[in-house]
Write the structure tokens for this entry.
Amino acid sequence: MSRYARLAFTDAVRNMQVEQGSRPVHRKELGAAVGLEADPLGDRERDFIAARDGCYLASVGETGWPYVQFRGGPAGFVHVLDSGTLGYADVRGNRQYITDGNVRGDDRVALFFMDYATRTRLKLFGHAEVRDVAEEPELAARLDEPRTEGRVERLVLIRIEGYDWNCPKHIPHRYSEADLAAVHVRLNRAENENAALRARLAALGESLPE
């Protein structure tokens, strides 16, 4: 069992799974030694995160209520620094500082990285830490390219505890401008190749079927 499952499948969750028939009764209890070490990010996770231009980030406030925000930027603005650490340059936004304030009291966060075009979702648990830009020039340089446009106010590191991939069920198909632009490029290429082929066949006195 993964670290993610150990953190997500609490007693209440496992009881619910047994009630609904998605977990056998004999598997209700977790083994004492399973899921104790953090799940390391592999090549698949690194590549997926590097290709994303946004993610959903959840934190927990002092009232106990969760707060979810969307973080966006150029593809790869969330950097995979190593197999257990993500980082990004935090730029000035609406100046509410809810997420940054929350992690001062409780560093636990959850992230969703989405690829709607392929209906793929990567979800992660981690511990967030805010670093000062002036005190971490080398880290700031690592997170500077690519990064979200704007004034960098702080650096955020997230130490990964666990992750899991979701099935595509109920994830809608959505396409970004970049996705659609790539489709148009392929269509234009196909049309040009088709036109060239028709011209060659016409020169030979033949034609393509309509």
In short: The chain has three domains: 1-37, 38-166, 175-210. Residues 115 and 121 are 6 Å apart (CA to CA). DSSP finds six helices and seven strands in the chain.
